[in-house]
Amino acid sequence: MSKIKVVVAGVGNCCSALVQSIHYHAETTKGLMNYDLGGFKPGDIQIVGGIDVDSRKVGRDLSEAIFAEPNVAPKFCNVPSTGVVVAKGPVLDGADGVLKDVIKVDDAPPVDVPSYLEGLDADILVCLLPTGAQRAVEFYADAALKAG
């Protein structure tokens, strides 16, 4: 069976837990109710892209970015270099409200998200943006639809 190619929008605490869990559970069923789901196992999930706006994450390998500030998710396993460099996404409303003092917005120009998704031949875009980032969530949903 082939890999499920995933791009993650939002390289925060939830992304950290997801990436660590995929890596950890590629070799063990411990802690999982269903190791095999429709013929797919955790090791079949391949993160092929990551998008964020924080300068402490943009341009870094995903394995480093998931542990960069302001993330505080516990580290429960080492994640080897992924070869996935976190791209800069558009700053919409994901850095508003209480987050405006926490996120250090990178000054690089944002990627064209639909083209980015198409270029990576992504199967799924997982949206892990902050609560309240409605415009950003709608933008990424539209970008995924445009990318097919």
Describe the fold and architecture.
The protein is α/β, with parallel strands linked by helices. It has four helices and four strands. The chain has helices spanning 13-25, 62-65, 113-119, 134-147; strands at residues 4-9, 45-52, 87-88, 124-127. A four-stranded parallel beta sheet has the order 3-2-1-4, sandwiched between helices. Helix 2 links the parallel strand 2 (45-52) and strand 3. It is globular. The model has no long low-confidence stretch (mean pLDDT 94).
Write the layout of secondary structure elements.
Blueprint: E1 4-9, H1 13-25, E2 45-52, H2 62-65, E3 87-88, H3 113-119, E4 124-127, H4 134-147
Parallel strand pairs: 1-2, 1-4, 2-3
In short:
This protein is α/β, with parallel strands linked by helices.
Main attributes of the structure:
globular; alpha/beta; 148 residues; 4 strands; four-stranded parallel β-sheet; 4 helices
